[in-house]
Amino acid sequence: MDTRYLQTFREVAKWQSFTRAGEVLGYAQSSITTQIQNLENEFGVILFERWGRKIRLTHAGEVLLGYTEQLLAMLDEAKAQLSDHAEMAGTLSVGTVESLAAFYLPPYLQIFRKEHPQMRVQLHPGICADLRLGVKDGTYDFAFILDQRHEHPDLIHVDLGEEELVVITAPGHRLAQAKRVEASDFSGENWIFTEAGCSYRTMIETVLREAGASVNSSLEFGSMEAIKQCVSYDLGIALVPKIAVVEEVKNGSLAILPFSHPDVRVYRQLVYHKKKWMPQALRYFLELLSAKQLDVQRLAKQA
Asked: Is the distance from CB of 239 to CB of 228 less than 8 angstroms?
């Protein structure tokens, strides 16, 4: 059996579409159809069934998909083990939340690039739930998230430490001079939120609701820079990672409110699949990130 048929089968199952799988793999739809038919003839089963305007796996297809994932993972591992070049070259596909990509990862990436110049790192922004899903389905080699601590049957979560969250305002905001701010003090405020599904947005919304603090109005942005600009113009307040506003607080364009809550806490986490084989370059990245209190800024300048 041609193992490419299994790769095609996996893509069709992933996208639930012959057309989309063909686009991803660079095959004509007729070629995709032929490959799936060859697999069905090989095993004597039907792998997909029509469901309205979509297709879905049959029970036999679900069983074969499990074996397919294992077989292709073993083939990938064998190729990597047998190729010294593959240890030092290739592409790492990394999912990440925007704030970590902009304010946490760059020094580590600089060091990594110096040690592995032939290894390309592609960063893909997203929200935590989508990033976890991307790791689970193989879209990303690993992902960086900001979330509560989680356990997942298929994923490893490496805790990289707590990331402080702060509520920011314009310097002239009514709460900017307060010595302590409670959730109830936010009642009637305008909020500028990150996109729906962001872990810490969900946290603050829950805290506000439980405190009976009504939100007067809200804006939503997927861009951290847009959020900071709007807050600096006093269009609302926002909950953001502290690392994202250090410079603005220093130059006086933003202020941090003295607010904290036990239910508004997130941790930097590196997520990868339990079954993923880890090449040398990826292991090095993990070791670099896991080094506690690493003076990464100093090392980056030396790189």
From this structure: no
Q: Which residue is associated with the tokens 């998230």?
A: 145
Q: Could you report the per-residue pLDDT of 145-159, keeping only the tens digit for each?
A: 999 988 888 898 988
**DSSP string for 268-302:** EEEEEETT----HHHHHHHHHHHSTT--HHHHHHH
Distance CA 188, CA 136 (A): 40
Strand boundaries in 3-73, DSSP class E: 48-51, 54-57
Question: According to the model, what pLDDT value does residue 77 have?
Answer: 76
pTM over 0.85: no
Collect all residues with Cβ–Cβ distance below 8 Å to 26 and sequence separation of at least 6: none
Domains of the chain: 3-82 (1.10.10.10), 92-303 (3.40.190.290)
pLDDT digits (tens, 9 = 90+) for 79-95: 766 664 555 567 888 99
CB 125 within 8 A of CB 264: no
Residue among 74, 71, 92, 88 nearest 142 (CA): 92
